[in-house]
Specification:
about 425 residues, alpha+beta, BirA Bifunctional Protein, domain 2, Rossmann fold, 2 domains, eight-stranded mixed beta sheet, five-stranded mixed beta sheet, about 40% helix
């Protein structure tokens, strides 16, 4: 018997209300800040991700779904959303538009990693990108947008952590200092960190192993080694966050998992869950457009995993609005009633009323049981005698009250629910 591949799940009908609720809130908040939707391909040229995400990252080295297509092209299923949006920005000449260009997306993301709650091999993201402006007020706006999105969902007890990891001018010296510190700790490092020490020193701060976390806690801090421009940018961001009344803490270990980040990095977490339960994060990537072949272009973005949001909505017992359901069940008794019911169902739908028309040959009791399980407000009972008389019996499923209505008047009566 076939099953969904490991690390993937079916999103069943009873779960769909969460997804539509989140998507509605995300699109609504995006519009408030002037973002427009973009949809990019599920797969891209592999080079787009190896060049942008970074050769020394776990994503590129361990997690990407990469294959050759029938044209012998090396293709990768999208492991994150930003690189694709930046490729589209370049390909479609968006640098000629008023800057910054603000875009949001919903995207399937594919990473081959150990499946766990809220982290699947195929998961789904909502993200936004603001490309073409380096002012720290834009950083604050993106964070404000993310914060407003989560609070609009009803999530509470969230915390914001941020850091600055510098730029091309000041980061090399900081990495040199950081590496000197970690070389002295080399015997205590986990195997992954021993590799990172040579290939991706900054990621040492991001290790989740308890023994390495103790070492990272005492490591030199990037905020203490920023160039004047980066220091001013970080100070400006914090000033604007204070103006927006968004509480935050600076965490010197926060670096994020992708190589393209510069200056601002941030994460939003449930206060009692720790860093591995981050529900959203992002940062500035001022060099990425240039690395992909464009001119120097500052940018900042944010993304969140929808599965992880749903886990937190359930954990906090936040009810979501139910999806619209059919309002009417049409019970048919007899062949003439069945034919009339098919025509009546089409008429009611044309008038904007959701209808489930009974199928098969079942007793009235069985049909009423099905109507009740569907949660409809009204059941229209149509038998051969009613067809001859040009009427139908309409039953209010909440009160069990019944009334005879002329078929010619039924669509209007049900639409207004006037009786």
């Amino acid at each position: 018997m076939y099953q969904a591949p490991r690390g993937t799940v079916d999103i069943l009908p009873e779960e769909q209300a969460y997804w539509r609720y989140i998507e509605q809130k995300a699109a609504g908040v995006s519009r408030l800040y002037g973002y427009q939707r973009i949809d990019t391909p599920t797969f891209e040229d592999t080079g787009l991700f190896t060049r942008s995400v970074g050769q020394g990252t776990d994503i590129v080295e361990k997690e990407m779904y990469t294959f050759k297509d029938k044209g012998d092209n090396l293709i990768t299923l999208r492991p994150e959303g930003t690189a694709s949006v930046c490729r589209a920005y370049l390909e479609h000449g968006m640098s000629n538009l008023p800057q910054p260009v603000k875009m949001f997306y919903f995207a399937d993301i594919f990473r081959y990693e150990r499946p766990q709650a809220g982290r699947l091999r195929q998961h789904h993201q909502f993200g936004c990108e603001a490309i073409g402006e380096g002012d720290p007020s834009l950083d604050a706006e993106v964070i404000d947008m993310a914060w407003r999105f989560f609070t609009s969902l009803g999530l509470q007890n969230l915390s914001l952590v941020l850091n600055s990891i510098g730029c091309k001018q000041c980061r090399p010296e900081y990495i040199r200092i950081l590496k000197e510190y970690y070389v002295k700790q080399a015997p205590e490092l986990c195997p992954d960190c021993s590799t990172r020490l040579e290939r991706n020193t900054l990621r040492l701060l991001d290790c989740k192993k308890p023994s390495c976390q103790k070492i990272a806690d005492a490591a030199p801090r990037s905020a203490d080694h920023l160039c004047p421009d980066c220091a001013a940018h970080f100070a400006g961001l914090q000033k604007y966050l204070h103006l927006l009344a968004i509480p935050f803490a600076v965490n010197h270990r926060l670096v994020r998992g992708l190589d393209y980040y510069t200056r601002t990095v941030f994460e939003i977490q449930p206060q009692d869950a720790g860093g591995q339960s981050t529900i959203g994060g992002g940062g500035r990537y001022d060099n990425l457009i240039e690395e992909l072949g464009g001119k120097p272009t500052p940018a900042i973005g944010f993304a969140t995993g929808i599965e992880r949001i749903i886990l937190n909505l359930k954990k906090q017992s936040i009810a979501v609005p139910p999806l619209p359901a059919p309002q009417v069940y049409l019970a048919c008794l007899g062949e003439a009633a069945r034919e009339a019911g098919i025509r009546l169902g089409a008429e009611l739908r044309g008038a904007g009323t959701g209808v489930v028309v009974a199928t098969g040959i079942r007793s009235l009791k069985a049909q009423l049981r099905q109507a009740n399980s569907l949660g409809v407000r009204f059941t229209v009972i149509l038998g051969d005698e009613e067809v001859k008389a040009g009427t139908a019996t309409v039953r209010d499923m909440a009160t069990s009250e019944q009334q005879t209505i002329k078929l010619a008047e039924l669509a209007g009566v049900l639409k207004k629910a006037a009786w």
